[in-house]
Amino acid sequence: MRTFIPLLVVLALAANLVSAADVSITREADGSFAASTNNYTARIGPDGNLRSLVSGGTEFLMSGYRGVVGGSYLTITEGNPWKADAFKFDKVEQTGPETVTASADKHRLAYKFRPDGLELDFAHAGPPTIYTFVLNPALKDMQERSSGEAVPYKTVWRDGTITLYDEKGANVTFPTGALYYIAKNSAEKPDTDPMVVQVWMPQTWGDQVLTKTLTVHAKPTVADALQAYLDISPGNYLFPGGQEADLRLRMRMRFPDLPLEGTVELAAQEFLTKKEMAQERQAVKLAALGEGEVSFGVTPPPGFYAGRITVKQGEEVLAVREFPFAYDLAGMTPPERPADFDKFWDDTLAEQEKIPPDWQLTLERETADYRLYRTTFTGLFNRKFHAWLSVPVKEGKYPASLTLPPSGINVAYLPAMGPGIVGMSLAIAGQELTLPPEGRFPLDPYFRLGWDYFRTGIESRETWYYRVVYAACSRAVDLLASREETDATRIAVSGGSQGGGLSFITAALNPRVGLAVCGSPGLFGLEWKLRHLGPAYWPPIDVVDENNQPVTDEAALEKRTAVARYGDAANFAPRIKCAVLLNLGLQDHVTCPAGALAAWPRLRGASIRGLLADPWGGHNGPRGGQWLGSVWTQALHAGKMESVLEYTKADVLPVVIEK
Q1: What pTM, to 2 d.p., does this model score?
Q2: Which CATH architecture has domain 341-658?
Q3: How far apart (Å, rounded) are the C-alpha atoms in residues 531 and 542?
Q4: What is the DSSP string of 382-411?
Q5: Which residues of 132-157 are buried (b: 16+ CB within 10 A; e: fewer)?
Q6: pLDDT (tens digit, 9 = 90+) per residue, 310-354?
Q7: Among the residues of 150-308, which ranges form H helices?
Q8: What pLDDT digit, counting tens, does each position of 515-549 carry?
Q9: Which residues lie across from 513 on neighbouring strands?
Q10: How far apart are CA 405 and CA 388, in angstroms?
Q11: Which of 174, 509, 536, 620 is the most exposed place for a label (fewest CB within 10 A)?
Q12: For the domain 23-219, what is the CATH code?
């Protein structure tokens, strides 16, 4: 035993020496630090920012151009020209054999140099912020990692995990974030302007550290060489019933001397229940620089599914493509709709009609084009609601827009304002339109825990606060229509997330609405959320005890579900008569799109119904969704809703439109 302990110590010391030999760090005369490995070299500037990252003889970052820095807390001021300013740390020092740490008030960033890349450990007590990587514009070969899709240089916006390649295959994979061309809003868009990857940084607390990783390969691996991407038609991954759904993966080997011989596996399951629907495997063999494809044909029951295609060589996983798809929307089973649903909501609106709105207006400001008012009105249970109202100065009849809010007790959005529009924006939780002097809204004793309006009164359908909210949204339309400046035939409602669901419901409750634009809409499929998705998905209406802990009692779940059915946006679909546009990201893991998809067959009464579904879109919505929503709104405001097809690039966007 006496000889065994020293031997362990010797072995441990030897291991440390090997690790230290993999990475060398030197301090330079200007106070910067240079790190070198067999795979890459990197430099941390005297300001504590990542100034350079070289692999395979290629620089992957850009620093010094118009104030940009390779990796930093970068403030980008858009314009023509744009400019950038990087945050500077106060102190930069080597804090370990493989670590350089930069620190400042409320900020600490530790760079850990690993043989295969960099780990960035962030800690900051300040408010949430964004960390930016600036990519070398000379390198234009980019792929989004989860989809395998090539991303063109000068892309306006793309969420995901980006890998940047040089011509020989050396590559860097950046942390998941938002990729965009820095001059996207500039008049001039030169090839010298870079793409940037922005990574959201939430506030950290105490000893909490947030780690982000850059993976670096000086020489490409087989996984690097493989470009595997889905080639699925239709482009929205919404397959019609009655025919086989073709799930096709295209592959090519992008670099010499790197062939592939392995398998491609498909697994698919029902999104809500996780019930397995399909599992298949095929062999694949590709020469270096070769191309090929694998196709899986499936005919599942109508529904919304989660698919996964995995490419393996031996036991090594080379690529995984996870994707949603729907089959036979027309045959999807919608959420359960109570038999007295319509009567309940007709009675609710009649009850509200007996309460005078007591609409009060206070002028906030006046310009040459419009007047902006703070307003209040009364709804069910005598709850007071605050709203902005903007009306043109010039007399006349104008189109109108009502904006409904996302989740939370927040500052209200300003309404549409200008010389040719009547705009209104509603705060649905009873809060003031702007923050009070103390900088936060006080807790409301009406709400559970002072803020939880989602579950307030949810013990019954009559007392649930969302009943009050839905009725208030309908009243807001009535008030908007009552203004002499409003052309009541051209009223649009719109919103995103919670506001998207509220827009849909408002169109169902109030026939004065001419168009509802619903972005990433919440409040759909509430029974499914309670039974299958749980607290990870919005809204937070799950059954909890007085300590906010989950309750799993089946009777309590059934009671909650029975109430939620009366607030489920999908159950309002048969009431809608106006035009409605649903903008969905099928990878929305905040407000699950399954309920909105299931509502589509119930929209038969809509004058025009549109569905833009992006298989790679998340809660930020589908690509092109904001543009499409504005185009539809312009069509209504121009009095040309019937010709909306002429305004919609159905040949460019995967949008379904039916009149």
Answers
A1: 0.86
A2: 3-Layer(aba) Sandwich (3.40)
A3: 9
A4: G-EEEEEEEEESS-S-EEEEEE---SSS-P
A5: bbbbbbebbebbbbbbbbebeebeee
A6: 999 999 999 999 999 999 999 999 999 999 999 999 999 999 999
A7: 222-225
A8: 999 999 999 999 999 999 999 999 999 999 888 88
A9: none
A10: 12
A11: 536
A12: 2.70.98
